[in-house]
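**User:**
If convenient, please work through this fold.
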Amino acid sequence: MSILFAILLFSFLIFIHELGHFLAAKASKVQVNEFSMFMGPAIWKKQKGETLYSVRCIPIGGYCAMEGEDSDTESPRSFQKAAWWKRLIILIAGSGMNFIVGILLMCIVFMPVKQIALPVLDSFEDYSTVDGEHGLQVGDRILEVDGEKIYVQSDFSTILSLNPGDVHDIVVERNGEKVYLNDFHMERHEVIDEQGNKMQLFGMNFRVAEATFGMKLEYGWNQTINAVRIVRLSLQMLFTGKVGLQDMGGPVMIVDTMSQVAAASPTWVDALMNMLYYGAFIAINLAVMNLLPIPALDGGRVVGLLLTTLVEKITRKKIDPKYEGYLHAAGMILLLILMAVILFKDVFMIFAR
């Protein structure tokens, strides 16, 4: 059931993305030739008006095919004949819909929460060595760690874990003023809990507050912004070589991870909320990734639109859209190859467990 739910959730997010393009195109009076879920040969299709609605057999992606999207046509309602700002709205509408869904899911996930941990220091354990006159103090609200903003309490340990070593730059709010603790030594201490487990802790305790409706909404929004940052940090690590292809995962790995998390949840309600959290994160991930300036992605098309619009304004000459179409077609081929490689890697890893 958890695997089926994960697949349906993933399919829903793809549908929402393409629906954003579709609704924006219809609102802009641009002709939509086909609205398709997934790729490959059609297993269901229905013509309604000018648009063919279809579901295809390969559960990857989907598309909203508009008249004259990658070539010039005689139709007065082609994509290329629409005003440049209308084309821009159509291109970013898919990611916009994913982002909105991500925010809504995040808020839904945290609505049942009764208490919220704040990034505010409440007390220190006796063994702690990070507090003191020249260190952290009770009441400090942690604003930044190593240049990264702290949106929610869990960000503190997450950001610390990304930077090896015990020396960090920390910014806190203390008595209404910012205090900068540069090159601050964060010493961990080995602690054994009641179950006999060894842990490395700083000896810091964070304040917990009763969650009001407004706090839940704010927490959901902060988690959304944090998810955007995680995507950015992941890309940084990929480009700097800190992670490689073996660390990347596709739809198969995502569905497998979601099913494992659901199976490990103590109740079906917890399982549902955990999967919805993953769904929110994936929705935000799709929104950000699709706006990257890569050919075949929405971000690549946005860059192409802005560049061609600027060149045409300067030169007063129309640029044949087929050349941009060739670039996006090449980008799509490379993207499909990458997706295939990741797919086979994910399947192999699952069966090798």
